[in-house]
């Protein structure tokens, strides 16, 4: 870590940015337009409320109607496009980022998707065959079906399937011994229509492996949307998570497979469903080809179109088609979803892609199902889930979401069917600006510099692709292959990781501190691992790490205590180390956070206030984290300057009985000072301190509080609660600097940041110390006389308890010498 002085420009810029983060760092909201059914007044009301609450922007999503429209204005109609143009302009004028979804509902599709451009699937039919040779007629079952071929296999025992091509509408089956079955492979449209489509946007989901299908959608929808708005005002165009169910075929697949893999697809197609000695490799080749077609014919096509239109493309790249973590390679804005810091979520999938790409900002769809149903979610729910995303490496959240509701909607108004309604109809909305500001500070800080993730978790694509069918969701298959036990073992031991796939096999070896391999049988992967070991990487197998996480080495962030509920992520920013630490449990966790690369001192930055809230002159921090509480720790390699403030004057006049100003030596115990021995009240101390420059932080520290006896039994014999510490001040101190009130201290820790009141040159410190009234009680003779008089008249009905202890062991004044810690 580079040397850093307390006045480092890097640290100063971080302080300033954390205290006042830009709006761009604040959460955005998915803004649901139902119908589409929205007015100019509705647009302006929603966007104004978002801006006033401190949100960073809106992602406009066009979904199903919530009422029958009297004057129908369907999706992409002139009236709809005019409302969209107004929304983009009005939002941008408010300083909001405005994103558009490239279609209605999900996944992409609509009435412009013809049968030849719709998503397709491969289906299998099994027929038992009697002995002998047969001519079996085959014909499509549904319109648009295409019979690819037949495959003859025995019912018992292993055997290679025999391919039977379709000739003139039939299959010629040879005479083979034993019971047999015929497998018939047919491709057909999946039948999936766009989910939650707006009025006028209904239709089939497109074939994401077909570049012409994608271009057709972009011409029919994307161009119309962008022609209606000023694209320079847009933050991004957006594609939600891939949910093209059962889409495992495209008409060009046989030709593409042969060109890429070097052998024919159709003769071996039955190996997708029949195990043979070579079927694993064949299945891996088929599924890898589908990934490549998705990347080249969908992702690359949309990226190129977005570049031509001058907008960024934001993608949730996981699901079906089988997107890989490296499929994000050319996407401008990478996004994930899903909370859970101990396991592999799509948020971690996305942040891993961003890490390998060097992309500083990675977002996540958050609060998708938060505290369902709508309006149950609290700010604590939102912050708690957001912390999990941050622990996964995400640094920007897009909330799910803000349902537009017209002013004349009955009852509570319109809500989205899935969970959160995170708008100003919530009774807790007065707290929303503070919540969004809190998340903006954390998001901004965690996108500075570079993430520190020393563990590379390598998942061999060959082995996962071989086991992909029939689900076809590569992210879920990788998650199963890795297993929760491995990721939980790494994270709870203090190690963060980046997930990589076979894309690294094509890159030149470079040292990676630790590589953990989730089981592989691929010779090419083993060769890469050997090359990595040769350049200094330590290679470990997943099973041994699960059994003993200590094999990975010293954790980047050691968490002592916490019962596995406290996680951390680490960023390195121009020589400054920043750790985000979060308690994800519904109970308090006390932990010692020991960063491996910690500087001699640590600071805690409070995301609620944007200020430093605590400091340690140790390479570790002891934290008591409340349920779902998070902390930011910041370290530098330069210790703070500590000044001992020993020369004080006791000032006469305003406070106290002293007849003159006089110097005092600290510690100053009033009970040991003849002029103050029995005094109760307030006394003023003054001192001066000269500074070359106003510091960024100046903590006035009155000293530690030593343990003492707590509860005791007095005359009554009952335990009386007493704080079990001897504080450095007896009992309260009000601090003024250069005439400015800085605060009052009455409980440990007796520390206060006075930097805002300090200046270059000579500064005057004024401490008004107030005692208890214990001595006054002990010296009050009239109480005894009054009690005696009452007893004589009415008898003894009470006893003033423990009067003999009224001022026992009382110590007043400045009981230690304050210090000023400058940084």
Write a structural description.
- The relative contact order is 0.09.
- The chain is α/β, with parallel strands linked by helices.
- The protein is elongated.
- The protein folds into 5 domains: 25-112 and 194-247 and 294-447, Glycosidases (TIM Barrel), CATH 3.20.20.80; 120-189; 453-552, Rossmann fold; 557-639, Golgi alpha-mannosidase II (Immunoglobulin-like); 643-822, Galactose-binding domain-like (Jelly Rolls).
- The strands form 12 sheets. It has an 8-stranded parallel beta barrel with strand order 1-2-3-10-12-14-15-16, surrounded by 7 helices.
- Helix content is 24%, strand content 28%.
- Residues 1-7 have low confidence and may be disordered.
- Helix 7 (346-357) links the parallel strand 14 (333-337) and strand 15.
Short description:
This protein has 823 residues and is α/β, with parallel strands linked by helices. The protein is built from 16 helices and 46 strands. The protein folds into five domains: 25-112 and 194-247 and 294-447, Glycosidases (TIM Barrel, Alpha-Beta Barrel), CATH 3.20.20.80; 120-189; 453-552, Rossmann fold, CATH 3.40.50; 557-639, Golgi alpha-mannosidase II (Immunoglobulin-like, Sandwich); 643-822, Jelly Rolls (Sandwich), CATH 2.60.120.
